[in-house]
Amino acid sequence: MRHRRFVMPVTLTLSALTLAACSGGGEPAEVADASADFGFQAEGLPIVEENLTLSFGGTKSPLAPDYATMELVQQWEQDTNITIDWQNLPDQVFQEKKNLMLASGELPDALYNTGLTDAEVVQYGSNGTLIPLEDLIEEHAPTLSAILAERPDIRAAITASDGHIYTLPSVEELGILPYPNFLFINKTWLDELGLPMPTTIDEYRDALAAFATQDPNGNGKADEIPLSFRPDSFCANPWDLITALGGQPDNNDHRIVEDGTVEFTANTDEYKAGVKALGEWYADGLIDPESFSQDDVAYLAKGKADTPVLGSFFWWELKEVVGEDRVDDYALVGVLEGTNGQRLASVTNNQEISRGKFAITRANEYPAATMRWVDRIFDPVMSAQASWGPIGVTLEENADGVLVQIPAAEGESEGERRQKVAPGGPVVTTRQDFVDVVAPEPRAAERQALVEEYYAPFQANDIYPPVMLSNDELEQINLAQADINTLVKEKFATWTVDGSIEQEWDAYTTQLDGLGIDDVTGIYQQAYDRFTAAG
């Protein structure tokens, strides 16, 4: 048995199995693969005849135990004869330690849930810390190879601009991530005031004005919060209101795609009109003054105050904001007809195809065995278990042979249970897999239905795809992008609160030009064109 805990090997055992990798200076080098020393088998199980131990690092959920204690992981060890020395840490802890780890010689054999940014993948791939995986995939990963052959878009998403694949993907195609910002309204208050469910932006504003002035909670105090949101959060953004008020589809990146063209949104006349109108709402007392300062804890508490005070808000899930007791008091608004007479649902750039779920480092003496090990997880049934937990614990087959959720124990949500029994990582569950292999979680299926009814029919723009920028592209945009994001965020808050957009707009657009917004957008267009050509 072999044991190693994040130490760089002094020598490599030679065998007939070799692969091309990059040296620290970026030049190709031959690195020996010693998988055969443990009785490596190219097919079937176990993967090695003699027990082999590999060290893995990376991130894990704060609720997750040591992966080695998970039933599914223990089954993997029995099946493969490969033991994993798991060193995965909660994300915040790992982020504090990863740079030192990657810069030193004390590397794990692989990273599982790598916690690496795109820039880090490119950096550590190009300098040889992470080895290229495409040849290993072709030789030792038949399941993943078949997926990539059928889905060139997935291959394009994980391929760096130098042509190498340094990390493996996670794919979960439910169709819900592009629409995280659900708009809810207090239906009980609407009924109390004799108001209809709003379908237009003007009707919605009228409802908020009534909430502000007509004491719908009946306590004789002007304590109602007509509308609350959190800009730049994952799911509490008011961009659909900007779209309805001005006609500009928008998202957190302020980057959209329309007809194959990458566009920056936060300097258009339509964006200006939307922000100006939202500032008028603020001046009329329709928007929570804490919208630009509150954190998630404060935001989520407002819907659960002893006296109901929250009239309308954006969030992913209703119950999380208002609690079980008030769920029936609220209703989903959906996409409002805008001032231009159109219903437009802004699409975010949240990706269902993500990178960085698994990487092999230069410290690994057994990449062939490692690739065979990880390839098993890409089987649709195994991916389902890695994502939601093992069959018999969290999943069971229904009459049609499809895996469905076993209800969680009382007092525990499916999400909490999932973190405790499923390691996640490199998985692929496609749209078709959600029909043939595993049913979505009940809460996900409910959201799918709502997206299909309320949002998807009104899609306003295309998503910017999961493009991996090159080192050169990242160097060109990083500083400018940070400054642009800061400026847009600050001005959006300022203009909403004090209504000064007309006086400051020209200076703002001039400042964006000076920061190189056209050049940054051009680089994103260049990367987009490369991605679409590859996919």
Automatic annotation (TrEMBL):
Taxonomic superkingdom: Bacteria
SUPFAM superfamilies linked: Periplasmic binding protein-like II
InterPro entries xref list: Bact_solute-bd_prot1, SBP
Keyword field contains Membrane: yes
Record bears the keyword Lipoprotein: yes
Pfam family, one: SBP_bac_1
Key words, A-Z: Cell membrane, Lipoprotein, Membrane, Palmitate, Signal
Signal peptide positions (record): 1-20
Protein name: Putative aldouronate transport system substrate-binding protein
Source organism (scientific name): Isoptericola jiangsuensis
